[in-house]
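Write out a record, fold above all:
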Amino acid sequence: MKSNEENKRKLIFDEEGLKLLAQRLKQLRSEKKITQEELAYRSELTLSQIARIETVKINPTVSTMFRIAKALDVSLSELFDFS
């Protein structure tokens, strides 16, 4: 029988990748002159969720990133363009 420790989900948290995503999100918001509050409203997410993404406190889901891209009127590839 597996122990509780073995049954726990292992979460993947790529801090470097999430930092790049946070920087890119801030950059796009700045270019479009959109506040975190406005982005939260447009994406139907909470302000705290946007803030936690931009401060690398959470690992957002793909669905969340789809909503953010749509709210910013950018493609996912543009949102994830870290070059």
About this structure: Helices lie at 4-7, 15-31, 36-43, 47-54, 62-72, 76-79. The CA atoms of residues 17 and 53 lie 12 Å apart.
